[in-house]
């Protein structure tokens, strides 16, 4: 009996003690404290939430801060076209670019401004100013614009010949035209890549990178960790003609190529391309096998223009051009690229196959203005 009374008393005491503790906690004004810098030693603060104002600076952020003011968004307007159903509305297109001189010259892609009117650029601070197209080079997909306004910054050009696979690079541009001066990072995947434009010529010596390049990034800079522009972002490949999908296949024009072309445009107002005066059909192993041709690679001459360098050199329809100057036409070099390795005004050897025999003709190239 005594043992039972002791047990009941203990249980009752525990119950009423717990009730009292709960009531005291409920009566407390319980709020978690927001800890600010300097309150770390405050003994009255409970359940502390730490807020830090640390500033993290990395090499990438430093490079972006230095280069970004020179990056612009390029805006153009394609006028409406007359169709069977009437005139279509004007279409706005956009891309990226970067300032290369204190006089307001800007490098971008040719395809960004091709066929557009009323070109303007949006500077890094959001200011929109009109721009004019100085000149373009469709074969390298480059264009030079000019603005007559203040220049917030000038991009420093680097030597693209020094690039190595695995090197970290940064792409800056305006994807979709809405997300101005977006930054992506990646590495140099390869150099010396080629890309068939589907227009009778190939873009040579491209830089391949896995830094994200999207629609609207075209014309923006590809930058190394020294803050130097080593490429001009130009295209991305999502798959091939077999239906295979791919990611991280972005390509940029080497800065050295952009420098040669832009410097000549600034000097002459245009970029001079050499002209031979022939219409050709590319010869590859498949065509050689189909038509029983004597070589696997070359350029089959379809037509020779009258009073052109080719005409004066003695080229004839049916000839197969296999070399121009020092450039042999092969799996890596098509006719146009072999021709463009020479200069207007230069006298070059043109090696051909005619009736199964090799001949070397001399052609004096002239300048082709776009």
Describe this structure in words.
- The strands form six sheets. The protein has a six-stranded antiparallel beta barrel.
- Strand 4 and strand 5 form a beta hairpin.
- The termini are far apart.
- It has three domains: 89 residues, Beta Barrel (Thrombin, subunit H), CATH 2.40.10.10; 113 residues, Trypsin-like serine proteases (Thrombin, subunit H); 96 residues, Pdz3 Domain (Roll), CATH 2.30.42.
- About 4% of the residues have low confidence.
- It is elongated and about 115 Å long.
- The chain has 370 residues and is an alpha+beta fold.
Give the SSE map.
Blueprint (H helix, E strand, L loop, with lengths): L1 H26 L6 E2 L13 E2 L8 H9 L3 E8 L3 E2 L2 E2 L3 E9 L5 E4 L1 H4 L3 E6 L5 E10 L4 E6 L8 E2 L10 E6 L8 E15 L5 E8 L11 E4 L3 E9 L13 E5 H14 L4 E3 L2 E6 L1 H7 L6 E7 L4 H5 L6 E5 L2 E2 L6 H6 L6 E8 L2 E8 L1 E3 L2
Parallel strand pairs: 1-2, 11-16
Antiparallel strand pairs: 3-6, 3-8, 4-5, 6-7, 7-10, 8-9, 9-10, 12-13, 12-15, 13-14, 14-17, 15-16, 16-17, 18-25, 19-20, 20-21, 21-22, 21-23, 23-24
CATH class of the largest domain: Mainly Beta
Number of strand elements: 25
Show unreliable segments.
Answer: 25-38
Task: Give the helix proportion (percent range).
Answer: 10-25%
In DSSP terms (H or I, runs of 4 or more residues), the helix count works out at 7
Class inferred from helices and paired strands: alpha+beta
Q: Output the strand order for the largest sheet.
A: 3-6-7-10-9-8
Task: Name the average pLDDT.
Answer: 83
The number of distinct structural domains comes to 3
So what's the overall shape?
A: elongated
CATH superfamily of the largest domain: Trypsin-like serine proteases
* CATH 2nd-level architecture of the largest domain: Beta Barrel
Spatial separation of the terminal alpha carbons: 115 Å
Tell me what portion of residues adopts beta-strand conformation. 35-45%
The biggest beta sheet is recorded as: 6 strands, antiparallel, barrel
The third-level CATH topology of the largest domain is Thrombin, subunit H
Radius of gyration: 33 Å
């Amino acid at each position: 009996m005594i043992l039972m009374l002791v047990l009941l008393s203990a249980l009752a005491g525990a119950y009423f003690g717990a009730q009292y503790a709960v009531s005291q906690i409920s009566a407390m004004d319980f709020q978690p404290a927001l800890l600010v810098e300097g309150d770390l030693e405050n003994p009255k603060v409970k359940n502390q939430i730490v807020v830090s104002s640390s500033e993290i600076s990395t090499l990438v952020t430093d490079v972006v801060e230095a280069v970004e003011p020179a990056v612009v968004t390029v805006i153009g307007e394609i006028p409406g076209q007359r169709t069977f159903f009437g005139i279509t509305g004007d279409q706005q297109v956009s891309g990226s670019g970067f300032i290369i001189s204190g006089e307001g010259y800007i490098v971008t892609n040719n395809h960004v401004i091709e066929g557009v009117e009323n070109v303007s650029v949006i500077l890094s601070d959001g200011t929109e100013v009109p721009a004019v197209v100085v000149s373009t080079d469709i074969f390298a997909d480059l264009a030079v614009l000019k603005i007559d306004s203040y220049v917030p910054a000038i991009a420093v050009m680097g030597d693209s010949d020094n690039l190595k696979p695995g090197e970290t690079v940064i792409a800056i541009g305006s994807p979709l035209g809405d997300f101005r001066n977006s930054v992506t990072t990646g590495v140099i995947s390869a150099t010396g890549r080629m890309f068939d434009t589907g227009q009778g010529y190939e873009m040579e010596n491209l830089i391949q990178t896995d830094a994200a390049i999207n629609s609207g990034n075209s014309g923006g800079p590809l930058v190394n960790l020294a803050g130097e522009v080593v490429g001009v972002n130009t295209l991305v490949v999502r798959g091939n003609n077999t239906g295979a999908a791919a990611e991280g296949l972005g390509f940029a024009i080497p800065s050295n190529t952009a420098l040669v072309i832009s410097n000549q445009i600034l000097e002459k107002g245009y970029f001079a391309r050499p002209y031979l005066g022939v219409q050709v059909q590319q010869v590859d192993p498949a065509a050689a096998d189909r038509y029983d041709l004597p070589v696997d690679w070359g350029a089959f001459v379809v037509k020779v223009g009258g009073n052109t360098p080719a005409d004066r050199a003695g080229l004839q329809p049916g000839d197969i051009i296999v070399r121009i100057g020092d450039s042999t036409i092969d799996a890596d070099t098509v006719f146009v690229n072999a021709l463009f390795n020479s200069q207007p005004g230069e006298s070059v050897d043109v090696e051909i196959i005619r009736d199964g025999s090799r001949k070397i003709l001399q052609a004096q190239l002239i300048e082709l203005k776009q």
